[in-house]
Amino acid sequence: MTIEFALYCILNTLFVIGISPLFVSMIKKVKAWTQGRQGPPIFQTYLTLTKLLRKEVIYSPYSSRIMRVTPYVNIAAILVAALFVPLVYVTTPDGGIGNIILFLYLLVLARFFMALSGLDAGSSFGGMGSSREMSIAAVIEPTTIIVFAALAFVFKSLNIFDMVLISAASATPVTPTLILIGISLFTILIVETARIPIDNPETHLELTMIHEGMVLEQSGGNLALMELSAAIKQTLLMALVINLIFPVGMATTLSLAAIIIAMGLFAIKGALLALIIGLFESSMAKMRFFRLPSLFMMAFFFSTLVIIIEVFT
Amino acid sequence: MSDLIFTLVVAILLLGTIVPLLGVGREVRITRYISLVSTILASILLTCLSAGILFSGTTLAFNLFQPFPSFPIIILIDRLAAFFLVIIGTVTACVAVYSIGYLEHMEGLERRNLLCACLNLFILAMTLVVASATTTSFFFFWELMALSSFFLVMYDYTGHETHKAGIFYFVMTHLSTLFVLFGFIALYTASGSFAVGPVHSPDRLLITITFLLLFVGFSIKAGIIPFHKWLPYAHPASPSPVSALMSAVMLKVAVYGLLRFIFTVLSPDLWWGVLILLAGIASATLGVIYALKEHDVKGMLAYSSIENIGIIFVGIGLYVIFTCTNLPLLATISLLGALFHSLNHALFKSLLFLTAGSVVHVTHTRDIEKMGGLARRMPYTSALFFIGAIAIAALPPLNGFASELLIFIAFFQSVAIVDPLMKVFLFICLALFALTSALSAACFVKAFGSIFLAQPRSRASSEAQETGMLMIAGPVLLAAACIVLGIFAFQVLSYAGYSLPVPDMFLISILLLFMAALTYVIFYVTASHDVRISETWGCGARFQPSSTEYTGHGFSEPIVTIFSAVYRTKKTSKKMYFDQSECIFKEGTADIRLIKFFEEYLYLPIARSSCAAAARIARLQNGCLDTYILYVFVTVIAIILFLGWSA
Fold this sequence. Notes:
Largest sheet of chain B: 2 strands, antiparallel
Shape of chain B: globular
Oligomer: heterodimer
Number of strands of chain A: 1
Structural class of chain B: mainly alpha
Number of domains of chain A: 1
Radius of gyration of chain A: 19 Å
Helix content of chain A: over 70%
Number of strands of chain B: 5
Strand content of chain B: 5-15%
Largest sheet of chain A: none
Number of helices of chain B: 24
Number of helices of chain A: 11
Order of helices and strands of chain B: HHEEHHHHHHHHHHHHHHHHHHEHHEEHH
């Protein structure tokens, strides 16, 4: 591993941890505005996380070691996955980091542990959340893989680094195919981050919650870790959309000025995407759970169609 | 030297077969021990020998034994055979260690010696099938394998369920033997020799027929849908070490047969690849969908075997397709994916079957709804099952992911194929393949969650205790192999001579550990250390009975509903009301009917029609001597006429 790559790793990890809670707050803020409310302050998520760190951790007497290791496995898997998506600075990949399939499966690893921890305490909420999460994850998987395969096809590479490099280097990165793939990526973003119309991140009502149901038994610092990893996961998926489709300003050399500019641009682009997500969420009602497969089928046919168009032209 | 070692392996296994037979009828423990220890010894020798052949690339060929002048048993172990012998050796050694502990808890005092004998015979048969250099000895040992495994399945012969499973298995496995036999006859017609070697026959039709016959024969044995029905019957009915061996090793012998005869003997066409890929993807998808619904832990593992064999077939199908479209690198990746997955599946499936066996032994039930809470009561077994579950759910960094990654990479790069229709076809298969792996993750969350987590849901489960040392030692070896092969997959492949563009899982594992450790340290410094063990919120209820937990049925309910078209579940309800506007409910009936699709629409019609045909033919047998003399007379006349005609 070169020094340059090690620097990339440190930079990327710190930046993603730093900026992720901001995007969470931003989406909340946008949703509050559309509802005519003031909304929480923009740094509220940071405060919530630090507050949680000071709280005690409560374990159910029935829970096993799964409950205790899940937060760490979860954050580790998500942080390693974070190395796979260059946010502001892109270099040549090393040792298979950046492989898009591995990226996807690191997210699955985190989800696997999270679903088990939902079942661990024996509460019916957690079980319900796990069951729904795994079902949704299974049904959306074909779409995800088709979109990723389409990306690999368009950029002729399996590595996210190469994709970002190619996209950043080309004069007109936005092609019609990429816009179509972008729509599919947006769908995946909505599903994977458990947002309306799939799941409602705001409620704690048994009828609507999926992701929140699984982390219901987590408390204190462990809950902070789970929340942080969910926020980072959201940022990573947002970064995929941003950096593959609008890679303007991506730093390709390791200079301080370029990186600071890239960080600023990424924050602005992220804020825009957060605005879109917030508006999208506010304009929709949550779907009935068993209606979701038909939504996913549509997303799947759409993505497959993109590939077929690309293949035949 | 190598041939002597191999002969020694055969001799030790024969010893292991004969010694316990001396103890049949009496309760003699020592013969069992000798038998199983010799199994372990033989399998370790076999593993070392074949690993040597595998990595050095030499070929071992010698004449083992010649019972008749025209029937020599010639041994030929090349790299392909050596690879499958490694699978047999490693899994058998671990299963035998487990069995020493497991057998002592089994019912049927004197039958246990018989079980040891059959186990050794079964392993011997599988070893010799893989090592056979002629179709005749291949066939002979194939049949020996079928018969010895039948006796193993029938161990608990008094049970009604076992009875049915045994008969089902017997019929299916002989159907497989029949197709293989016809395939070999066709092969002999094409090549004119019994040797297993490349056939250069101009008659393409004959080659195609041979392929189809052998494909069906090996598919039945491997449990490819729609020939899969024997697995979910036979695996739950047999003792756990036997299910582990059958699922992990015997199915791989069928995969070996397919690889050997289709690629080194016949030269494949493109459409063969498409056929194998279709069979594989259908088995993988349907297998895991059925597995999700299963609540018998061993039945679920059996369906999951169908899924994994499907994945292996997908790899093989891709290999054929890429070979026929001149993409050698992708062909190598997919073949390595298929082979690597064969090894990995053997390891984690035997691990799962053995640990599930321990759980079944402790809780006296195979129904996962009656388990629960075992993680705290059986910490070692649960940890081992957990490793198996991670591996089979294809999660990084364990071995299941390493092999599926190879197949994924081959799929992702299939755009290099020129034919656009083939590209689209492969993309659709890729989507189904992804669905399979996501569903299998859901399946094992459900399995692990229902068996080991939360509160016990039955008395046996709440009184469960950890099993003995040997029943942990065997699975520990398998789990270690799963971890090592996953983390060092890249290095192992490089050592075997294949440097592929795949991610280095060792680096990823280091990173994962590093990140977890870093988080832990930061947490240790910054976060509060207060921990309380207390009842968490249960909707205001004073205490949580285990009956309020989410059960396995409940867990898989969304998936069952989403895929209800596949399960063909029919729900009908009739309601009657007191009033006309249908407000006040009076009475009604509701009915859920589960259709066993393949049984009702495929197996039973065939069985019925063959019974009807048999009844018609049975009319020839009327028991009257004159009629039989007439038959003989007519036959003689027919033979004379036929011979005269052909002369």
